[in-house]
Amino acid sequence: MHGRRKGTRPSGVELQEELQQGAAAAELIRKALQLRKQTLIYPLDTSFREKYLVVERALETNPDEYTLWAFRREVFLLRCEHDSPETVLSLWKEELFLTTRALQRHPKAYPAWQHRLWLLEDAEVANHIPSEARLEAIKSEQKLSQYMLFKDGRNFHGWAHRMRVKSVLISVLPEHESQLEREELAFVEEKINDDFSNYSAWHHRSVLLPKVHDQSSEVFLTEELDYVRQAFYTEPNVQSAWFYHRWLLAGAPARRMKAHVQTRLLEDELMACNELLEIEPEAKYALQTKAQLLLQLKRGMEAEAVIDDLERMDPMRKGYYRYLRGQCHISYQA
Amino acid sequence: MASSREQLRIDKHVAYIVGLEKKTKTTDALYFTDHKRLSGVYWALSSLALMRKLHVLPQDTILDYVLSCYHSDVAAFSGNTDQDPHLLYTLSGVQILAMYDKLHLIDADRVVANIAALQRPDGSFAGDKWGEIDTRFTYCALLCAAILRRSHLLDVPAAVRYVLRCQNFDGGFGCIAGAESHAGQVFCCVGSLYLADAMDEMTREDRERLALWLCERQLPCGGLNGRPDKLEDVCYSWWVLSSLKMLGHVDWIDADKLIAFIGRSEDDVDGGFADRPGDMSDVFHTFFALAGLSLLGNKQLADIHPAYALTTDVVQRVTEPSA
């Protein structure tokens, strides 16, 4: 199983404890699923309400039990129809709090994230929650994902949740769309500045930037290239900045440039790579980028020499380098 | 290629898979995977099929169990008998029935019609009636429909458009448009494009960038990770390799080093494969290890199809023109 070392299988008292815990968890889940088979009739009687606590405990134990989350949604919707608005509001907050507890212990549980988003996003739910309370909750929602990303800056569930919540917020406040995108870009930039190797943050920069900036300007591209250069000068061996760099040079703004401007730009980037390679001759991604730039500049022969170095340095990917060499020949002919 | 390498301990792995059935019945400690047991059955049976030993488990007992997860009211499968129907498990159910050539046991028209009802106007798919959107579900939908020969009931062009919207700056794909690339999602998206016969909808440059991102998943230990700066894991032998296979660039990684890594994750005493060397085996990683080795041409194993995740004889059966 994921991450469990061989030979660490517990024995003796420890094994007994683990088996007991497993049995208790399995029993909780069995009871909760059993309760689900009951037809829901309003008002929910006291005996149901008492037994219903088991669902919460089962989900805290294993938030991957997707059917139990669905069960909670059914119960919640039923009570929305009948209970007072105050009760519904407090139930709604309790549901959100349950997902917080589940996610703190199991940050990668898909169904817990889904349940949380449903509470914030679903149109039927929104009909039963006062709009100010809902808006306030959605606005403060990014704090949860900020906390999750503080604990693990690469949790893609947390990142995806931020995007989804932002869409909900934009649907409520369409006039604030550009401001929301700018705020998100500022958050992402903070994450990158904390850690240049945070690949997730670079990815989100690539998504947000075109929404916030006028990409057609050359100034934009130059500034962005300066920014990414700082990153790979600091940490030449992390992939994020290099992938980002390649994307910038292949993107629409670079393609729209006049030929001589584009050539000058590529030559500038080539110079930056060479400067870095003088200090760090083994920086593989700098060499890969250099080969790519030489190919774009139609300097196939020089590219081939770089590819020779790469193949020697990085033999695992020699299939890729052979392919690149094929491109050099195309480049000669061109 | 395979001759120079150590032989797989097929007997041990078969015994390990067969032993799992008893274990799931007696061990409460497996509670955390109980909700997706039907997928566990698919991984177990596929492992056996790859080793050409599907017959060692009793087909009737298994089919009884599989059908106990089928909800005829909505024509969909759930992850276990007491669970709710969900597209993830409808795919597992359909794949198992395809392996046994028993697709007639379900109402294919209704299964696919209900999947079609999960498709959104933007082309994406929800996993069930609660509306979670994820490109994993696009793959499940397209594959179920392909196996059941009813792709025409889905809006395939819209599904393709949505998948293409999920392609990122690095060429990879994420769970929704704008989400970070992840090798598992890459497999789902490339698989979807493959099943939709739409691989050419990616530009040559995008395909090249994606294949480069995929081959950069190989780490010095030989194993593959699922995202940059993450640990290696045997399951990516499948997600990454099958994607490279569909892109025509399996040779961009070092097969020998990957085979050696998978070999070090093999439990040659009790059978099965773990996520990485030194860890305990499980059925999920056992399937992905064998599937990866099959893609790399291991002669002890049957061939697996990179998009259908079924042995090629089954794929041939479900895709051949009907009489």
Automatic annotation (TrEMBL), chain A:
Statement: the UniProt record of this protein carries the keyword Transferase: yes
SUPFAM superfamilies linked: Protein prenylyltransferase
Catalytic activity: geranylgeranyl diphosphate + L-cysteinyl-[protein] = S-geranylgeranyl-L-cysteinyl-[protein] + diphosphate
GO process annotations (BP): prenylation
EC number, as in UniProt: 2.5.1.60
Gene Ontology MF term list: Rab geranylgeranyltransferase activity
Keyword Repeat: yes
Enzymatic class: transferase
UniProtKB keywords: Prenyltransferase, Repeat, Transferase
Similarity remark: Belongs to the protein prenyltransferase subunit alpha family.
Its job: Catalyzes the transfer of a geranyl-geranyl moiety from geranyl-geranyl pyrophosphate to cysteines occuring in specific C-terminal amino acid sequences.
Name of the protein in question: Geranylgeranyl transferase type-2 subunit alpha
TrEMBL record, chain B:
GO MF assignments: metal ion binding; Rab geranylgeranyltransferase activity
Keywords from the named record: Metal-binding, Prenyltransferase, Repeat, Transferase, Zinc
Cofactor dependency: Zn(2+)
Cofactor annotation comment: Binds 1 zinc ion per subunit.
Record Pfam families: Prenyltrans
GO biological process, one term: protein localization to membrane
One term under GO cellular component: Rab-protein geranylgeranyltransferase complex
Enzyme Commission number: 2.5.1.60
Keyword Iron-sulfur applies: no
Catalytic activity from the UniProt record: geranylgeranyl diphosphate + L-cysteinyl-[protein] = S-geranylgeranyl-L-cysteinyl-[protein] + diphosphate
InterPro entries assigned to the protein according to its UniProt record, in alphabetical order: PGGT1B-like, Prenyltrans, Ptb1, Terpenoid_cyclase/PrenylTrfase
Protein's UniProt keywords contain 4Fe-4S: no
Location of the Prenyltransferase alpha-alpha toroid domain: 8-309
Purpose: Catalyzes the transfer of a geranylgeranyl moiety from geranylgeranyl diphosphate to both cysteines of proteins with the C-terminal sequence -XXCC, -XCXC and -CCXX.
Protein family according to the UniProt entry: Belongs to the protein prenyltransferase subunit beta family.
PANTHER family: GERANYLGERANYL TRANSFERASE TYPE BETA SUBUNIT, GERANYLGERANYL TRANSFERASE TYPE-2 SUBUNIT BETA
Subunit structure: Heterodimer of an alpha and a beta subunit.
Protein name: Geranylgeranyl transferase type-2 subunit beta
